[in-house]
Amino acid sequence: MPLISVEDLSFAYRDREVLHEITFSVERGEVLGLVGPNGCGKTTLIRCINGMLSPRRGRVMLDGRDIRIMHRREIARAMAYVPQSAGNRTAATVFETVLMGRRPYLNWKVSPADEDKVVEALTLLDLEELAFRRVAELSGGERQRVMIARALVQETDAIFLDEPTSNLDLCHQMAVMEILRDLADKKGLAIVIALHDLNLAATYCHRLLVLEGGSIYGCGAPAEVLTEDMLRSVYGIEAVVKRDLPAPYIVPLRPGCLESGV
User: Which CATH number fits domain 4-226: 3.30.2130.10, 3.40.50.300, 3.40.50.450, 3.10.20.600?
Assistant: First the structure.
């Protein structure tokens, strides 16, 4: 049984339909990349899956259970969420912010085991030296790594990340993606990541789900999904997909709109 099943999911903001009859599943130990142009519904889809938004139609099943009948605390113990941008107004330190990821498990006080998990996550994300800095003082990339660390200490079966590498330099982009891939491969977590960087997605994701206008254009292994035809149809660009590397590599040539005179 898949850990996450999305069945005929549709969502609308008032009269504007954003997602239309979305159906797919995510297995344990899998990294699924959500890709597609701006406004295609990636963020909305993640928020529907983790219960932040209520679909107009369809349902989301978590390990065989409909999330609509699950308590918020149950969902928080099963699914962690890293939003697109981390807030910068908090007065909390990095350590305190990451510790908040333990909230679904805390009762009256923080245990040494909880603190040890925070230290482990800070070390994994190269944040040890920033532990007692205020989050508001950090760069955008540092704040993003803090939010990922907070998700890790939540110890869930699934992690959803919305553009987690957008504020990171190239080295930290690769480091974060390698950590997420290792969590899937070695610990059996289901990882769902909305990404704009198709080459990064091709390198680290087991499968890619391509959204176009709120519907699924295609879903499969990167080598199957990343084609010149898809890039032309979905992204409106002319590109070459190089296939002489371990993962497909996209070389953009020109925007297709130039041919139409736009």
Answer: 3.40.50.300
